[in-house]
Amino acid sequence: EVKINDTRGTEVYRETMKTNANGTYSGELTLGEEPPLGTYELTTSIPDGVTHYASFKVEEYKKPEYKVEVIPDKEQYANGDLIAATIKADYYFGSPVANAQVDYYIFRGRYWRPWWYGTEYAWYYEDEASDEESNSYRAEMLESNTGYLDANGQFELTYQTEKGEQNVDYYYRIEARVVDASRRQIIGAKQVVVTRGLFMLSSYTNKYVYSPGDEVALTLKAEDFKNNPISTKVTVEVYAREWRSGYGWESRTKTHGETVNTDATGKATVKFKTSEGGYYYITATSVDTRGNKI
Questions:
Q1: pLDDT tens digits, one per residue of 173-215
Q2: pTM over 0.85
Q3: Who's near 245: CB < 8 A, 6+ residues apart?
């Protein structure tokens, strides 16, 4: 039995349902023109005597009178770059939200480039993927500050990213909260990527499992963060590895080394033969025009 009570405790829905083959059920509740606002409680009682509780909120919708945008000077940066962005607020009828207070926050989190970027499967995923939908889950807040929009409804901010030697990529999310004269708050945000270098390397082998003596064909791919191919020099090293209990993976000996250049499509192929059974570890290293090791 499924029951819903509104925020006043009044029962607004009761229905006996049967779960499907997956053990789930679904139903609908149509709200009135002016329903009580607040938290509604959903109660599910099953024959074994166990009752489960859930809740949802009903809130008044107010059409926003203005919009807030965060506009960075670039979409992608390298470690050590200065991020410059403009916070812009405009009423929908065209005028700027002049002299309004803006609270802004800068978050940073680890960034992993989706595996499907630049592949034949991109069309399937890209419609559902959006940087604007990303939040600051597992991100650290680097800065919070308050300022005021100018007469044109704009505020300029900068943030200096760390140069460092960290072999990781990050996303930086800039969130702006603007409050106009009517005390309405509207939030705008933008996420940019700050990477260890100006391009990335990826690699894959022609198989996952080989026999001793088999030839391994390793394909390398160099491209920037807009999927443009990069012609560059790449150094490849192959090591035999073994697992030692209590110590973890250990690289034993270097079995192959080679330097190649990626072509106009950003690709290069390295071939080598396995000498014995076990695990092999492959590194591919390059350097961008700024001297960043990738």
A1: 999 999 998 888 999 999 999 988 889 898 889 998 999 999 9
A2: no
A3: none
